[in-house]
Amino acid sequence: MRLIIVRHCKTILNEQNKLQGISDLGLSMKGVRQARKLAVALKNENVEVIHSSRFKRAVQTAEIINKFHNVPLLKEKALNEMSYGIFEGMTIDEIKDRYPQSFKEWRKNEFGYAFPKGDSLSSLKQRLGVFIESILNKKKDAMIVAHGEVSRVLLGNILKWDNERIVSTHLNNGSVTTLKINKIPKLSLFNS
User: Fold this and answer.
1) Which helix or strand (DSSP H or E) is residue 91 part of?
2) How many folded domains does the chain comprise?
3) Phi, psi (5° rounding) for residue 4?
4) DSSP 184
5) Which helix (H) or strand (E) holds 153?
6) Would you say 152 and 170 are in contact if contact means Cβ atoms under 8 Å apart?
7) CA 187, chain centre distance (Å)
8) Domain of 62: which CATH number?
9) Coil, helix or strand for 188?
10) What is the spatial distance between Cα 44 and Cα 75, in angstroms, rounded to a whole number?
11) Strand ranges (DSSP E) for the chain?
């Protein structure tokens, strides 16, 4: 079984380095061009099913890729990005300036920190556990089109990474990460 994890392509907020979370934006023009190039790069991959977040930016990316595959595209609530709460739409510098104490708490415990009126990576890891198990049990070559936080937590769950490794991992917009999963999952391509 192969699993291809794709982070959605760029949106206006990505281009502005702002936290997006549950803000449901579509791709920017740059993101659409990025998705088209990505689709061409992935057109010869064996994919039996595509699982996508329900947010527009992921669905758009998945639909563009799926033009070359024409396989079932399942929009999964479990793959929706986590909420950054009151920090949504802000840059890191804006958060640091407006909420210095919250910023310090976040940086001290990035995995367990629950954003004010939002989620934590820890709660996201729990939410994704059941989804991952169901995907792995189906044993189909699958693609997952999701978000930055979701993708790194998915990888961490599958590869049994500790929380520090999950926090320190970054995946770029439009990146591809591939896993071969037999008895032991193996990373064959990372953030390409």
Assistant:
1) none
2) 1
3) -110, 120
4) S
5) helix 148-159
6) yes
7) 16
8) 3.40.50.1240
9) strand
10) 22
11) 2-7, 49-52, 73-75, 142-146, 176-181, 185-189
Q: What is the pTM of this model?
A: 0.94
The residue to which tokens 């929706």 are assigned = 80
- Residue-wise pLDDT tens for the chain (192 aa)? 999 999 999 999 999 999 999 999 999 999 999 999 999 999 999 999 999 999 999 999 999 999 999 999 999 999 999 999 999 999 999 999 999 999 999 999 999 999 999 999 999 999 999 999 999 888 899 999 999 999 999 999 999 999 999 999 999 999 999 999 988 899 999 999
Per-residue tokens: 44: 């010869």
Q: Which domain holds residue 49?
A: 2-189
Contact by Cβ (8 Å): 11, 20: yes
**φ/ψ bin of 30: left (φ > 0), alpha (ψ from -120 to 50), beta (otherwise):** alpha
